[in-house]
Each structure stands twice: as structure tokens, then as C-alpha cells.
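ESCALATION

Customer reports they have been waiting on this structure for their group meeting. Please prioritize. Original submission:
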Amino acid sequence: MTTIRIPGKLYLAGEYAVTHPGQPAVIIAVDRFLELTVSEATTSNGSFYSEGYTNMPLLIGRKNDRPELPSPFELIQQTLQLIERYIQELGKVIRPYDLDLRTDLELHGQKIGLGSSGAVTVALVHGLLEWHHLPTSPLLVYKLAALAHLALGSHGSLGDLAACSFTGCIRYRSPNRQAIRNLYENTSSLLATIRTPWPELSIERLPFPANCHLLVGWTKQPAATEQLISQPKPLTDQQLSQFLATSRGCVDQLVQGITEQNHSAMADAFTNNRALLQLFAKQRQMTIETPMLKTLCDCAEQFGAAGKTSGAGGGDCGIALVHDRTMANQITQCWQQAGITPLNLAIYTRKDDSSCQNKPTEKTNMSP
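Update from on-call: job pushed to the front of the queue and completed.
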């Protein structure tokens, strides 16, 4: 039996811009988890169970020796097909398996914006590699998970997969997704696609300052990230160029503040990124900062902290950067009075990932 715990994630800066190749963001892994247990199959093809989504284990079907699951489990199916192909390309035999997913990334059956779909993919990749006694690394797990999402036409940055794979606080620069698709189509080999450095990709662990603390508030309003990214009015070329440059500046400012343990610089980066996202939403005629998220951010600023939305906005979570307990208590009380639920979260760093500390991945051509 193999059991894997994968953390949730939160964006600190760089949202929306990071969906463009080469654009950076700062993302953290948080200490709420999705747990996957892989065990010996009790039927010939194995089964899949997800707490809250299946009443009983679903039998995994097989067509042309590829695992199949019914709708709405397309992402699970795609991930299983991809990881099995990877295992077979390594010359290994598939060990039939039962899968059991349990999640702490929801409250009262609702997603809370911590990247549950990304965590599921990372858990399946990591869990099945370990189940087959194959080596893993954060970069390998990230790349396999990313390929599963790309196969389903994802428009996202894939940054949630990086945060769940590497853990801690990371500076993430998104890869050129079309170049990855072209690479895979041209080689028809997962091994070749994974071992080749991906254009623009960079993942670097940052040492988050001990004297800075993040508060996270949940608005109880779910957001649909893919719809927010793909449907609103597009920017003009000039607007897009300015948005990307300004977002990069906000991320660089936050990274410098984190590296120098400068709370003031970090707070300024939060404030500047919030203003940029407000302008971006106005230009695209979309809603990022809902009334509840605006209240969340305003509460933070009222008591001297910096607040902003996290991720796609339109619901889910917001964050506040604080430096003392009094400030934190005042903001938390303000949130609760407004109907916002504070989430007791901290940055999570997997103990066996210490070797990633402050080391850029991929742009140094490291192999998975």
C-alpha cells in the first residue's frame, strides 16, 4: 500500500499574467492536503474511489489496454492513461491498483480555492510512480501532471502543479505550452518530452520570511478559473504588453522583498498587484474582486496590512500580509463580521524537498 499527501496552493502575485509563457508568479503550498492511497487491486482492472464524488468504488474500465472512467472523471482518466504510458515506456509492467482519494481541500463539500484538481493530478502521478517503485522528483511529477492537463486543453499556467509538486514558496515562470505540445507530437515519446528542457519554464524555491505571516479568508463563493481566463473581452496589444510588464514588476518586487526579508516591500508588492488586477478586470469587463473579496482586502488595509485576491478571483480566497498578532486578530474579526471565513493555513514545505531550496529548476537544464 502507498499513501501520498499533496498540499493545496495559493497564489501570492502574478495572476493572469502567468498564463503567458515566460511570465512569473509567486505561489505557496499550504498545509491542507489531499490524500491518495494506492493498494493492490481487488478486481482485475482495479477501481477508483473519491470521497464525496463517488458513492462506491468505480471499476476502472479498459479499452485498447488503456484505463477508462465515466464522466465527469476525464482528468483522472487522462492522468491514469498518461502515467501508465510513461511506466510502459520505461519497460515496466503495470501493477493493477485500487485508488482511494480523500480531501481536506474543501469545506462542507465546497472547493475553497486551494487547487484541488491540480492536487489530484499530482497525487495520482506521485502515487502511481511510488506504487511501481519508480524514482520521483518534484520536476518529474510536475511535468507528467502538466502533460495530463495540457492533453485536455488547459488554458491555465500549470503553476498549481508546480506548487503542489515542489511545495514551500516558489517563484514560478510558466512554460511555453504550445512548444511542449509540439515537442510531444513530434517525438511521440513521454520520456523524450520530459527529459527535454521546456522553453521558458523556471521553478525556484524562495525562503519566506519568518516575521511575515499570511492570513487567508474564504468568501464561500466558488470561482471557475478556466472560464475567467478564457471568456472575457481580450486586451489590446498595448494593454496586454503593459499588463505583463507591470505584473512582472510586482512579482520581482515581491521576490526581492521575500529574499531580503523586507516586509514593507512585500506589502507594497501586494498593494501594487491588487491595483493592477483591478485595472485588468476593468479593461476586460470581468469580475475578479467580488464585493466579498473587496471587503476582505479593505479590512486588511483598514488595519495597516496589505490584502489582495489570490488566484483567478471571482470568488474563493483572498489573502492579507501581516506582521503582528494584534493586526491579525483585528483583520480576522473584521472578516468574520462580514461573513468571511478565516482559514487556518501555513506555508507547507515537504521535508525531503530541502534540496530544492533556492535552486532554480529547468533553466539550469536539470534532468527530472
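Sent to customer with the following note: Residues 354-359, 363-368 have pLDDT under 50 and may be disordered.
Escalation resolved.
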